Amino acid sequence: MARTSSLAAEAAPRCTACGSERIVKNGKNVCGHQQFRCRACGVSRVLAPKSRETAPERKAEVLRAVATERLSLRAAQRVFGVARGTISKWLEKKPKPSRR
Ligand SMILES: [Zn+2]
């Protein structure tokens, strides 16, 4: 199977700001994602940025482990690879699951 560039794979990529098709690759951002620049309006951005939010299932799994397995935040950080500050933030937002 021939490899195609991400630009060619997408059907007519358009500028997310003005809708122009005159966009060119413009290096990568600090995260390593391909950036594009619009020749028409001049904006530079990632065309389809990924959501940085954790999937709700994974979030629930981590919170369940912390609540039921009596996992410390530091242990949860090691096991799941989620920063303990993040887990702490989730715990503040979400009411604790009831214990049976
Ligand atoms: Zn544009």
Written account of the structure:
By secondary structure, this protein is α+β, with helices and mostly antiparallel strands. The chain folds into 2 domains: 39 residues, no CATH class; 38 residues. The protein has 4 helices and 3 strands. Strands 1-2-3 form a 3-stranded antiparallel sheet, with no helix packed on it. It starts with 5 loop residues before the first helix and ends in a 7-residue tail after the last helix. The mean pLDDT is 83. Zinc ion binds next to loops.
Counting DSSP E segments of at least 2 residues, the number of strands comes to 3
Question: What small-molecule ligands were found?
Answer: zinc ion
Q: Kindly state the mean pLDDT as a whole number?
A: 83
Proportion of residues in helical segments: 25-40%
Q: Give the N-terminus to C-terminus distance in angstroms.
A: 53 Å
Note the topology.
Layout: H1 6-9, E1 23-28, E2 34-38, E3 44-45, H2 56-68, H3 73-80, H4 84-93
Antiparallel strand pairs: 1-2, 2-3
Using brief descriptors, characterize the structure shown.
100 residues, 3 strands, binds zinc ion, three-stranded antiparallel beta sheet, alpha+beta
